[in-house]
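User: As part of a screening pipeline, I want to sanity-check one entry by hand. Below is the sequence and the SMILES for coenzyme A. Please return the complex as structure tokens so I can compare it with the automated output.
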Amino acid sequence: MSGLVIEEIGFDGIDAVMTVMNRAFDPGYGEAWTEPQLLSMMAMPGTWLSLARIGDVPAGFALNRLIADEAELLLLAVAPESRRLGIASALIARSFDLLRLRNGVRLHLEVRHNNPAIELYKKAGFRAVGRRPAYYRATDGQMHDALTLSCPVLTGLTGHFSRNELQFGPNESRGPKLSGRRGAQRLASLYF
Ligand SMILES: CC(C)(COP(=O)(O)OP(=O)(O)OC[C@H]1O[C@@H](n2cnc3c(N)ncnc32)[C@H](O)[C@@H]1OP(=O)(O)O)[C@@H](O)C(=O)NCCC(=O)NCCS
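Assistant: Here is the complex for your manual check:
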């Protein structure tokens, strides 16, 4: 979509992310993170936070963490007024592109079993690989299962970002380093 910019941000971008966070998640499930939760995760090695903007207006974000060669999409949200424009899909594509640069092999995530976002993830190539019964407690006390979804980097979306456009976040120096190793053959041997 025109005017959409996605970039990795550091601690100075937290306010923009929190404006989306506080409006995006259904308060009935208590799934939005607090600012201290977000800050402490961002301080962990291998974590990066991508912010989507339309012009200057924050529209969505994705938080990822890479450990060894597997990553987790920890948070994904789009502001209510910016939905169904492909922004979450573009953020997922960027997660995969950054993972490719870091020689990651697979992206995992957890999602409440009745979250409509599951449609988005299926469309993006994720498949259910596990179920955790009564994993989430809603604010009314009701328990909900979590689905674990996973997608190999090889078949994940791409945003066709150029290598120059894919920049490291400020805390990336403590995370995994890029190497020139080509991952595609290795991935193919692992998954097909
Ligand atoms: C889930 C969420 C991130 C989707 O963001 P989005 O930018 O609207 O998603 P996209 O526009 O990229 O959607 C791409 C496709 O995914 C599917 N999809 C997205 N949202 C959907 C919904 N609520 N219900 C059913 N299908 C959906 C559709 O197939 C959609 O294509 P279409 O618009 O052509 O029909 C957004 O609704 C949100 O922030 N929800 C609250 C936070 C949340 O639950 N995050 C995920 C769990 S951590």
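Points to compare against the pipeline: Confidence is low (pLDDT under 50) at residues 170-192. The chain has one domain: 4-161.
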